[in-house]
């Protein structure tokens, strides 16, 4: 339940089973009878923020529906020309192959992970709770090498090494989603990561973009998208989109660095009117994580997030680039990329399948 205490403060009560999960809870909470319920009260204060640029609302060309599911092999053959899918299933190194550019070139970004004694990236161990705060032991020795930028002009048969300009924005970076090709031919890749080793220990992410002005051969020209100077919010998993009118929008997963209190991830939205050089302050948008975004024919936005099951909302549609939302459809549990097939069809890559959405009728809204 929720109660408005004033114009700038609300009080929210959350109920949950006291017995914790083995993944996140300290030992003291694993033996509590499942029938007992824990009730927590959380206070939220309104924090004044900067203005967000308004985005033009476009006319709808029709409603979209989930139509079918493709195997990874079928998706790879149709979308990538048989070049292979996006290796995001925990393999090391991890790779993201973006859909072909206008020239037909493929771009791949890899980042080998070096995790002593394990291929699992969880490095936090929850050992207790005190006054509502998690007590966490952080395992040292987790390292991530700088990513490699690669490109192919023969549908992935051979790959050429791209160059990475220094200085690099992050000490420990992670690529996020597919490479975007802007209207002027500039390639844009989204990243999140830790800028310093201390940021890694604090679990404090920032999000940024890198550019290539020569078709993916050289990468640099960084711009920071979301980075909280007060270190209250951690911004990761950015999804970027550009529109022909020059408006760029980024959605970033937003959470507290120490997950205190433990709240599921939400997506925040930021707008740029100067091709990604400067960005508005991120504002909460929808609940979710692992986002992907694409502009549909006519200028509508399809925004994809990880769902909790096939029956849950996962694909959100907007006619003003996420300023407001029109409706949502069920989608995939895991997401990382999305793209257009034709004027009436788009796909969402979900690691073990590709979900196909088609426009079914004209709405004229």
Structural overview:
- The chain is mainly beta and 365 residues long.
- 4% of the residues lie in helices and 46% in strands.
- The protein has helices at 72-79, 197-202, and strands spanning 2-6, 9-17, 37-45, 63-70, 94-97, 106-111, 113-114, 124-130, 133-138, 143-144, 148-152, 160-161, 163-164, 172-181, 187-194, 206-212, 218-226, 234-242, 248-255, 266-272, 283-287, 292-295, 301-304, 313-318, 327-330, 337-342, 345-349, 354-361.
- It has a five-stranded mixed β-sheet with strand order 13-17-16-15-14. A four-stranded antiparallel β-sheet has the order 4-28-27-26. Strands 5-6-11-12 form a four-stranded antiparallel β-sheet, with no helix packed on it.
- Strand 5 and strand 6 form a beta hairpin.
- The longest helix has 8 residues, at 72-79.
- It is globular, with a radius of gyration of 21 Å.
Q: How many separate helices?
A: 2
Give me the side-by-side strand order of the main sheet. 13-17-16-15-14
Content of β-strand: over 45%
| Uncertain parts | 85-94, 115-122
Q: How can the largest sheet be summarized? A: 5 strands, mixed
Overall mean pLDDT: 79
Q: What structural class is derived from the secondary structure elements?
A: mainly beta
Quaternary structure classification:
single chain
- Cα distance, first to last residue? 35 Å
Radius of gyration: 21 Å
